[in-house]
Amino acid sequence: MAWIYLFVGGLLEIGWAIGLKYTEGFTRPLPTIGTLICMVSSVLLLGLAMKAIPVGTAYAVWAGIGAAGTAVLGIMLFGDPATALRLMCIGLIVAGIVGLKLVA
């Protein structure tokens, strides 16, 4: 169950990172509320996951899911550059997440 909490927490981290763009500096109420809900929920799920998963592994996986997912959505939603090197680096983050899961 801890890995499910961690995965969902990582997805919510993507949600708040992307949500920040839509808040326009916290001037738009609905995106701001959604972003804050994602932030709090993400950290709460990370905390629950850390009951069973080592702190270093849990945090690295949570942050990796957030970083890779946000980078991919930045490409898809906002036209961020999708260079080969950038995509390779995202792949390395994903490989690190998988590796940590396999050894945890």
Automatic annotation (TrEMBL):
Signal peptide: none annotated. GO terms for biological process: xenobiotic detoxification by transmembrane export across the plasma membrane. The chain crosses the membrane at residues 33-50, 57-78, 84-103. InterPro entries: EmrE-like, Small_drug/metabolite_transptr, Small_multidrug_res. It is a multi-pass membrane protein. SUPFAM superfamilies: Multidrug resistance efflux transporter EmrE. GO terms for molecular function: transmembrane transporter activity. One of its GO terms (cellular component) is plasma membrane. It holds the Pfam family Multi_Drug_Res. Keywords: Cell membrane, Membrane, Transmembrane, Transmembrane helix, Transport. It is found in: Cell membrane. The keyword Cell membrane applies. Gene3D superfamilies: 1.10.3730.20. NCBIfam families: PRK11431.1. Belongs to the drug/metabolite transporter (DMT) superfamily. Small multidrug resistance (SMR) (TC 2.A.7.1) family. Gdx/SugE subfamily. PANTHER family: GUANIDINIUM EXPORTER, SMR FAMILY PROTON-DEPENDENT DRUG EFFLUX TRANSPORTER SUGE. This is Guanidinium exporter. It comes from Rhodopseudomonas faecalis.
